[in-house]
Amino acid sequence: MSAASLLNGRSAEHLQSPRDQLPSPGNAGPGAPALAGLVPFSGVDWPGKLAAVIFIAGCPWRCGYCHNPHLQQRHAVYSWPAVMDWLHSRQGLLDGVVFSGGEPLSEAQLPAMVNEARSAGFQVGLHTAGIYPQRLRALLPLLDWVGLDIKHGVDGYDALTGRSGSHVPAMQSLQALLEHGGEFECRTTWSPQWQGEVDLLALATTLARQGVRNYAVQLHRAGPSGPAAMPLSAATASRLGQLFQCFAMR
């Protein structure tokens, strides 16, 4: 039985360590990986799993609706040895670890950290915008699940990311996932400011035809605690649900 399935039987206070048990900020040192944040447990960042989420700072894109702009520039808050010590204290309480960002594949030390987390008995998931397809392809044998952001149809990608040709690596990353055959989910953050429902449906239809089975629409929020964007119409949500084996709106 997964830890996620046990969540209703445990209090949040039991799963979330007291503050003095969390890694202490600082002492990362020169050349340390850019570990900029840690969520002790999450039931939403890896569907069906209860996971700790480690945020890696650094991202070359400048998306118009970026949810974590404070993670665009590389910086370190925690040291990796301190995070691993903390993860050892979570053994038996968590299903896995998700590396998120920022763009976690921007971190050269990510493969070593993934290996160490796996050696400690954790499954490992990854959130990525698909910016570095070759790095993703090399890491896939070590990953149990990937959440890939597909931000827009081809015509709107550059305007949204602020970078020319940004759809190319994203599509190459999708192809790598399809060829690998492991578990993954495509996600699109939806804001009516950036694309209409017709555009979203067109993108989703293309993804389904390519072989994507799991898809989620994430309603854009104005900041981590801000209100969600206008919800999709019932007709659009229904059509999206028909396209995929598993569809979620968050």
Task: Give a written overview of the molecule.
The structure is a single chain. With 250 residues, the protein is α/β, with parallel strands linked by helices. The chain has a single domain (35-249), classed as TIM Barrel (Alpha-Beta Barrel). It is built from 8 helices and 8 strands, in the order H-E-E-H-E-H-E-H-E-H-H-E-H-E-H-E. The chain has an 8-stranded mixed sheet. Helix 7 packs parallel to helix 8 (234-243).
Defining key terms:
250 residues; alpha/beta; TIM Barrel; 8-stranded mixed β-sheet; 8 helices; 8 strands; globular; disordered N terminus; Anaerobic ribonucleoside-triphosphate reductase activating protein; rSAM_sf; 4 iron, 4 sulfur cluster binding
Beta-strand residue fraction: 15-25%
Number of β-strand runs: 8
Instruction: Enumerate how many helices there are, as a single number.
Output: 8
Can you identify the CATH superfamily?
Answer: Aldolase class I
Shape: globular
Task: Describe the structure in brief.
The chain is of the alpha/beta class and 250 residues long. It has 8 helices and 8 strands.
